[in-house]
Amino acid sequence: MNLSKLFYGMVALSLIMTSGCATRHDVTFGILQSQPHPVRKTITFDELIQSVHAKNSQVERFKADLKLTFTDTIRSKGKTVHCDGKIALEKPDKLRLYGSQPLSGKIFDIISNSERFYIYSPKEGRVLTGSSKQPLDSLEPATKIRPNDVMHAFLLYDIKEMCERYVCFFVHEDASYVLYFLEETNGTYSLAKRVWVDDDMFEITRHQTFDHSGELDLDVKITDFFIFPEYGYFPKRMEIESPYRQLQLIMEFSKIELNPALNHNVFTFTISENIQVIEMDR
Description:
- The chain is of the alpha+beta class.
- Helices cover 15% and strands 46% of the residues.
- The chain has helices at 3-19, 45-56, 147-153, 159-165; strands at residues 32-33, 61-72, 79-90, 94-101, 105-112, 116-121, 126-131, 167-173, 176-185, 188-198, 204-210, 216-228, 232-242, 247-258, 276-279.
């Protein structure tokens, strides 16, 4: 039996029963003290969700330069690759990310939109492509970086919609509110996501995604922020790690533009005749 599923299921059920409400989605929880800690401010579950939603909904798109550090423990035996790159992202499902090196030029190009994704490797002369509707987890182990690794890192999904989909509650730990999102399947609860929110600036500083077996699939940490007068905080340094796949991607952003006009062509990819095409659709 998966102990983590059992634990979070018991917690969820106990909270629901003590609240006097049997509905999954309409439960409002107060702060649960996991350990003695001075609470900066009394806050309800609904107030916390509203604060996070308000901050996340301010930016619909952005583009930036970045420095990338990528480590693949399994395939590259721990070798670390450094490169410069550019990223453009537009909610809810558009991404362009590429990396280049001074002598090698472009070393990868990732494009994903509402219809198709493309992962192009110039050195190998091939592109992986498929429908964006399919679970991109199926790309592993065909590629190192998955488009949804990057898109999930920016929490493109609406946190209010997450509260409708999952059983959720939060605790206060150290200087963070920690949100737990539990998925219910046939009466069994498993941890789907966990999100850390700084209790002072109400920004997300870390979040984790778990697979259906309860294993940690993605761990994202935001360790530094820029401050924009109009939009508030925006990540300056982000660490994306997959313990199961033993991959780590560090992105350090610069020259950030928030809510710029982005041409549709940014999120399209033209396949030339000399490129090998590998279809990933099942």
